[in-house]
Amino acid sequence: MEIELWWLLALPVFFGLGWLAARIDINQLLRESRALPRSYFTGLNFLLNEQPDKAIEAFLDAARIDPETIELHFALGNLFRRRGETDRAIRVHKHLIERGAPLIQLSEEQRLHALSELGQDYLKAGLLDRAEEIFEKLRGTVRDEEALRSLLEIFQQEKEWGKAIVIAEQMPGHAEHLWQKEIAEFHCELAASDLLNGRLEDARTRLDAALTANRKCVRATLMRGELEVKVGAGATATADATRNLEAALASWQSIEQQNPEFLALAAEKMMDVFRDLGREAAGSALLRGYLERHSSIDLLDTVFQAELASNGPQAAYVCVRDEMRRNPTLLGLDKLLEAQVLLAQPEKRADLELVKNLIHNHTRRVARYCCSACGFKARQFHWRCPACGGWETFPPRRSEEFDLTP
């Protein structure tokens, strides 16, 4: 009972101490608010009245009186940039660096922060050359990693792939192969330009570099096959051309070991080479085997067209029917109806075509590739997402390969 009595006596004491502490905190808050310069409240008033230029001047005056209000400039600039008013954000940060310098004693950390924010403003505004200049100044400082990431984004937007490779190789984590996918893609972009302009040996060197950076780079393997086809097309001897076409097929077939989902991207190219070699039946058999092991709507479409051209509507129908039994999808149903229309009697064809057209119109709307990072959907496959800029974020499968099983 003694202990309980002491607690009862202590409770009023604790209550009184808590009340006293609260009063001290309130008084301190009031003193701090009165200590704020008048120009601070003037700037807030200008900001609320949509007069940002006058607000900037008022905040600069506040910063001259009380350097701690420098953070207001950063907050104001970020606010403008988020709202898309990049010109105002630029003015805020330039005022802080240029006009504020004689009045405000910026620490080195604050100066670098202001430069970084100005660089982000230029980047958001699309003034890439100015942004690059700012971030180059930040190299070797405490904001070096931030500068590297921003420069990498700039060079990707400018399609300066050689510069992007140099920056990616300096990124933290490069030694642990954290950037191998991006570096390989940059080499592929350079190789694509070489292929387009007929620089075949330069393209081969780039593709070798891409596979050295990332041995699982399917894009480089696909392009290596395309390179062999181009070399074969320019060969003077038939034997040399045949050898190049065989090398192209070997390259594309190796995709099954890299990532079999991407076989659909090479299927049509493979079938074209088999036709050039006069081996359509072998090509059709190879693709049917892929389809059984790695189901894909795009692969099914290529196999369907190959069977239709080589063996007729009945063989194409059987192929699609068997695939539908294994993997029923709406997009597969569209192909099945197409084959049935070709096989149907004239009096039944009109009804089947009506059903097929209904399904086809629907599947055209839902057959999209979907970015796994941001959810952006596109009709065609992209190696880099147009929305979020991620590399290899599009799985090579349609997002709406609906399962029709109960």
Topology overview:
Elements: H1 2-35, H2 38-48, H3 52-65, H4 70-82, H5 86-99, H6 108-125, H7 128-137, H8 144-157, H9 161-168, H10 180-196, H11 200-213, H12 218-233, H13 238-253, H14 255-258, H15 263-276, H16 280-293, H17 297-311, H18 313-326, H19 330-343, H20 346-366, E1 369-370, E2 377-378
Antiparallel strand pairs: 1-2
Helix pairs in contact: 2-3, 3-5, 4-5, 4-6, 5-6, 6-7, 7-8, 8-9, 9-10, 10-11, 10-12, 11-12, 12-13, 13-15, 15-16, 15-17, 16-17, 17-18, 18-19, 19-20
Specify the structural class. Answer: mainly alpha
Q: So, the CATH homologous superfamily of the domain at 34-170?
A: Tetratricopeptide repeat domain
Low-confidence stretches: 19-35, 402-406
Proportion of residues in β-strands = under 5%
Query: What gyration radius follows from the Cα positions, in whole Å?
Result: 33 Å
Overall mean pLDDT stands at 82
- Would you identify the CATH architecture of the domain at 34-170? Alpha Horseshoe
The total count of helices amounts to 20
Query: What profile does the largest beta sheet have?
Result: 2 strands, antiparallel
| CATH fold-type name of the domain at 34-170 | Serine Threonine Protein Phosphatase 5, Tetratricopeptide repeat
